[in-house]
Amino acid sequence: MSLSYETAEEWAEELSLSVDPDLETLEAYALQRHPEIVAALGSQGAVLAERIRPGANERRGTLSCIAGLLLFGAIGVAPILGVAIYAEAPGVLFTSVPPVAAGTAIPISSWCFGITAAVLLVGAIVWLVRGARWNPALLGYAVLSFVMAGFATIGLANVAARDEFAGLAGWLWPVRAALIVAAIVGFAVLLRVRHRAPDEGDAAADPDPPEAGAQAGPDAMELAAAMPEEDRERALADRNAALDALGRRGFLTGGTVDRARAVPLGGLGTFRWTGKPDAGTAATG
Question: Is residue 102 within 8 Å of 165, Cβ to Cβ?
Fold first, then answer.
């Protein structure tokens, strides 16, 4: 857990006298051992739920990042390896490394460009399905592939001639396919340079925003009612102790505390009060 206080009562005892207490936050502290319920409490609960379980989020984020890097590396390396496999390094760098024989270099290069062409085709299909908007990453990959495939169409012929390799024509088809597909995809993306994705804050990106107060997912009271009895009693006792602490410190009147205690566990988000003594009211909605 990563919340500032281990219990709701501790949170209530330490709450600054200069602010009105947020009862949704109070209940989140009482239920913090059950982040799935905290997440259903409302907007504040969703924020606190992310803080309660950062370990899992960080692990997922790290694994996603590693997987993304590996995938990007594999995709990005293909057209580069397609040229590097037959190219001769400058002698000042690798004087003892002989050039790769044509019988090995040409098939590997051909397979690399076959992968490149397939990746470009899949990328183009996904791009079209998602609206064919301006995509600099896809354009960059298409340009890289086009340049590398262009080099390979000439370089592989030179390598075949150097080693008297027969059957080059069949191995060149994937290279030429990558060259053509890269040119088409790159040109298509360039034509969409003015069609950019809307900003995240643009209302057009969410034409039907949820109504104020609308809550997605399961109801927090239902989730709390389904808790193991021992956990539910512990959380309820902690919540009520925190409410008593707020009453004792002058945040809530005695009547407001009594009405808040009567609300089912998980339901303080629907409890309405003004935050001023003698003005508490209980309502659900």
Answer: yes
